Protein 1
Amino acid sequence: MVAARYTVPRMKAIVLAALAALTLQSQAPLPKGQMPDLGRPTKPGDALPPFDADSYFPGTWRFEWDVPEGALGDAGRIEGTTTYKALGGGKFDAATNATGAWGAFTLHEVLTYEKDDKKVSRSATDSRGFAYQQTGTIGGDLGGFWNIYLEATPFTFNGHSIRIKHNMRLLSPLNYKVGVTVSVDGGPFKNYGNPWWRKDPTA
């Protein structure tokens, strides 16, 4: 019986195929959406399951934020990461490290989710010298989209009284978008950008 002979290109192809198979096997499965598979189109009377914050937030998220010039700092792009850790009881620790138009800074947050009441609160401390509290509600639809609307207590920064509103749009298990509006010295709320957070499923 004659032994099979493999050319160098064929051997390379076999090795590459084996490595690709091992890579696919070692990758963690991507997170699934929170809406159940009903096996049919949704109907108006279908119940909306509660938001599962424990499966959504924990992990490392990367973000980009294009900010205008204003009371919070210069115009430009801010980039960084936010890492959420579950503390239990609906509480999450969020540590943000950022750099860009506002220099290098950190933001420490504690987010609390009250599932039964569909309420969310957040305390935030910015390394640039200010802190604020936020409260709001969470709502969703049968398409799998969730919105968290948060309003902050006033705080003082660079001689100005500032209020911030955040509208967090949880669009998928791996990304959310935040609509940010800011009021300065009691004036109208103005658009302050729409940063994206994208989750690193391997982190």
Protein 2
Amino acid sequence: MSLQVVLIEDNTDHVYLIKSLLETYEEIGDVIVFNDAESALAGLVSTNEKNETVLPDFIILDLKLPRMSGLDLLAKLRESENGKDTPVFVLTSSDRTQERKRSEDLGVLKYFVKPLTEENMEEILQSISR
């Protein structure tokens, strides 16, 4: 089984490191990267040429994004029919209690503080396979 992943991260160095780690797992297929919340939201709620919604198996989301925060994106995604049930994992530099709480309230499966580690990836894959 090949999992499609959406990574929403604005720092190109972090994108490179995260993608490099993801690509070491045979379960991971395509990794689609969005560098800001607006393009991610547009891409995640759009449809393909057959008018079908194409959703990832899971999303890795940074909270500190330009213009619209990751939490605001997540709230909008949860309001949409297409994204209300998509598994989301937060990967951010912030360990603030209020951000953790709001993430949990919005249905985030796991909240990780950067950098993403192999142990974090194992937790993600275990959560997805349940």
Protein 3
Amino acid sequence: MTELEAFLKYHKVRFQFIDKPQTIHTEDASRVTGIPLHKITKNIICQTPKREYVLIILPGDRRINLLKTAAVIGVRKIVPVPFEQAEAISGYPPGGTPSVGHKTKMKVIFDQSLLSEETIFCGGGARNKLLELRTQDVITLNSAIIADICE
């Protein structure tokens, strides 16, 4: 059992792993699985000027608005961390980063457009897996801030 699976079972969360060919980008994951792109989340780790990490969760078919996102948490700017640094922070490789259960505790901002989905898909801890979770479980487990953060 992986650490991610143990985390989900410990929190009594309903989940499903979906095997797929290795991918990094949401567009590719959507193409190989047939899951609509708007239901697969981008999980982007950003950093504030005070070096605090923030996880941004948004639909795979949308782009993050960094100014709106920074304003949500009251900072002047926020920048995505490089891929190689993201894995050290989350404990998961880019393309496999789940929306929950990270190595480093972070604030989480969840795009409000995802609220219309009962379940969402995110990285499953590895580039060859997706993880389906109930949207409300992602919000609850992260104590996520819900906001309009997309362009």
